[in-house]
Amino acid sequence: MLKKEMLYEGKAKKVFRTEDEKKYIIEYKDDATAFNGVKKGKIVGKGIINNRVSALLFKLLEERGIPTHFIELLSDREMLVKHVEIIPLEVIIRNVAAGSLAKRLGLEEGAVMKLPVLEFCYKKDELGDPMINEYHIKAIDLATDEQVKKVKEYAMKINDIMVEFFSERNIKLIDFKIEFGLHDGEVILADEISPDTCRLWDAQTDKKLDKDRFRRDLGDVESAYEEVLKRLQ
Ligand code: TMP
Fold first, then answer.
1. What pTM did the predictor assign?
2. How far is CA 178 from the centre of its chain?
3. Are residues 67 and 78 in the same domain?
4. Distance 97 CA to ligand 1 centre (A)
5. Per-residue pLDDT tens for 12-50?
């Protein structure tokens, strides 16, 4: 598939058009940012790992009935995906309190939720991705009721599938962020699922194996990403 001009460069990925207008190429970078781009760095090899981890999880989810944008891996850092129009929502699922939820509700990091918590953020960097609810989504036309229903249904199912999958690999899925898009009018899972977008703790020691090692300067960032890929393969 011939790569044409770059359409978009994000903080961790580049998106390219191809000769087929319904297919795009995503290239995963080593660049890492946190706190809405305030903290900047590089995690050497991250692009390669996130490309592989995302491909592996998208394949798993497809097999289990979740439509995704993933078509195939093209190289170390590139995957071919279906073109989508991104729904401007960050969908967060939390099984255990951590990060902004622990802070907001005054909970201990590690406190297990009685049920998975679903949150929506409005995907808008200039505003720092503020948290919103279904009334806001409807009031400012971010998605239709039907699309929101699908998004919630898929997100919960994705959580069930991934909690089990990670747990079998000795990893606790604490929380994660996903994004959906529209392809031929249908809601499908898009973006990436990787240690950049999930909190992953070792099941025995609770060692963080995700981007919190970069956000919080915990060290061993590269080796944590490598460990996740190793356990998933
Ligand atoms: P939070 O606790 O900082 O709100 O993060 C919740 C989850 O969402 C966590 O797994 C990290 C992920 N996340 C992203 O993927 N992108 C972001 O921009 C933020 C803030 C969080």
1. 0.97
2. 4
3. yes
4. 12
5. 999 999 999 999 999 999 999 999 999 999 999 999 999
- What's the CATH number where 150 sits? 3.30.470.20
DSSP helix/strand/coil, 180: strand
For residue 36, which atom of ligand 1 is closest to its CA? 18
As a whole number of angstroms, the distance between CA 68 and CA 193 comes to 11
- Based on the fold, state whether residues 35 and 135 are members of the same structural domain: no
Quote the ligand 1 centre to 35 CA distance (angstroms). 9
Is 21 exposed, middle or buried (CB count within 10 Å of its CB: 0-12, 13-18, 19+)? exposed
Ligand 1 atom index nearest CA of 198: 10
Is 229 a domain residue?
Answer: no
**Do 142 and 190 belong to one domain?**
yes
Phi, psi of 18 (to 5 degrees): -125, 180
| Pocket flag, ligand 1, residue 121 (CB < 6 Å) | no
Which residues are registered as beta bridge partners of 96? 112
Query: Do 192 and 174 sit in the same domain of this protein?
Result: yes
Q: Where are the alpha helices (DSSP H) in 92-219?
A: 99-105, 134-139, 145-167, 212-215
Residue 154: what pLDDT? Answer: 99
Domain identity same for 207 and 136: yes
Distance between CA atoms of 222 and 216, rounded to whole angstroms?
A: 14
107 shares a domain with 53: no
Query: What residue numbers bound the domain in which 157 lies?
Result: 85-219
Rg (CA), the chain: 17
